[in-house]
Amino acid sequence: MARRVPEAEIRTQVTVPLSFVDGYQTRARVFTFDGLADGREHLALGLGDRAGLSTSRAASASVPLVRPHSECLTGEVFGSQRCDCGPQMREAVERIAEAGGYLLYLRQEGRGIGLYAKLDAYALQDAGLDTYEANLALGHAEDERDYTVAAQMLHALGVSRVALLSNNPDKAAQLCRLGVHVTQRVPTRVHLSAANAHYLATKARRGAHTLDVAYVSPRS
Ligand SMILES: [Zn+2]
After folding, report:
1. Residue 143 annotated in active site
2. What is the pLDDT of residues 58-71, one digit of tens each?
């Protein structure tokens, strides 16, 4: 039974040209919202056929490719090799731009525990704990991410059915409970490096992520 989520509405929308360090460029329609449940400043980026000023009827009839992506300052801004968030987001933007859809940028750093706590958890991992054990040792849950605001943003955008770009079965389950119909789950590639191999293996084992080696990125 789907839980009713509080209603949010679109506050502003503006076009932002994007250019990544590897030269890839596209345009995004960036949406902000009023009424998001946790009061934080989450964004939706409309890409591909959803990047226009007004979405065409053909686009609004199709099921958009959607990725709820949780903020990772260290990985996305500084290129940290401890995780794969930077390459994951870069891949997601291009694939969504090709298919038409939305990247939901969620301000929940470090699986929801925050930036400082994430760095504390890294220190514990250097002492031998895995990424989930480290969160527990700090008094947090293994994974505190919550997709209520993702469902709110989708509702505000008029989207009730999505193709979900994610390897995380928990995202699909949470969105279903929040009234978003996931028509299919589309895996992302695995962005493997020497520094994140252990992290990715732990995610696959503990978080039940579907990491298919066939999707290993040639850039990795
Ligand atoms: Zn990260």
Report:
1. yes
2. 566 789 999 999 99
